Amino acid sequence: MGKLTIMDHPLIQHKIGIIRRSDTGTKEFREIVEEIAMLECYESTRDLELEDTEIETPIAKTTVKKLAGKKLAIVPILRAGLGMVPGMEEMIPNAKIGHIGMYRDPETLKPVEYYCKLPADIEERDVFVVDPMLATGGSACDAIERLKGHGCRNIRFLCIIAAPEGLARLQKEHPDVDIVVGALDDHLNENGYIVPGLGDAGDRIFGTK
């Protein structure tokens, strides 16, 4: 069973409070999304394997820990997921980056895929799927299904805000996936938006509305 982590760190809560505000501008919104992604990346990499290596400090030789060389990949769900990538890259700069493009049909609220480009060896990598909002869960579930179709078996999903409906669906359809959530909100409204939420994350990150 995948592990669910709902972040309760004061910095996360403070920063989410800022991006919820309707008067937070595009530049500040984008920067804080990157910072939250960095903090969530820290949490979601807690169980990466380490190995010993011998080094020489200015004083003496010693044995230290280093990452065991497991290949990593970051896969944002376009387009809002792109806003989380810089923060993830700061923490794991050697990760390869794939992209899965989806949009939500305004009538059915179901995801429609329009783009998929992944590292050639994606099946060998630990994959971090990122999207700021987990609303109905449709895009996240479909993206993870696509990755599993490419042979991925170690997948983690990171979002900033989740609705209970989307979280329940993701856990039901992909019970093996670890999930890191910045904040769990109250419900979805009739238009499929998270309440209280923060509006459309993609529009707010890129200043398109």
TrEMBL record:
GO terms for molecular function: GTP binding; magnesium ion binding; uracil phosphoribosyltransferase activity. Keywords: Allosteric enzyme, Glycosyltransferase, GTP-binding, Magnesium, Nucleotide-binding, Transferase. It is an enzyme of class 2 (transferase). Its cofactor is Mg(2+). Signal peptide: none annotated. Binds 1 Mg(2+) ion per subunit. The magnesium is bound as Mg-PRPP. Pathway: Pyrimidine metabolism; UMP biosynthesis via salvage pathway; UMP from uracil: step 1/1. It catalyses: UMP + diphosphate = 5-phospho-alpha-D-ribose 1-diphosphate + uracil. GO terms for cellular component: cytoplasm. Residues 7-208 form the Phosphoribosyltransferase domain. Its EC number is 2.4.2.9. Uracil binds at I194, G199, D200, A201. Allosterically activated by GTP. It comes from the Bacteria. The keyword Magnesium applies. CDD domains: PRTases_typeI (cd06223). 5-phospho-alpha-D-ribose 1-diphosphate binds at R79, R104, D131, P132, M133, L134, A135, T136, G137, G138, S139, D200. One of its GO terms (biological process) is uracil salvage. Belongs to the UPRTase family. Catalyzes the conversion of uracil and 5-phospho-alpha-D-ribose 1-diphosphate (PRPP) to UMP and diphosphate. This is Uracil phosphoribosyltransferase.
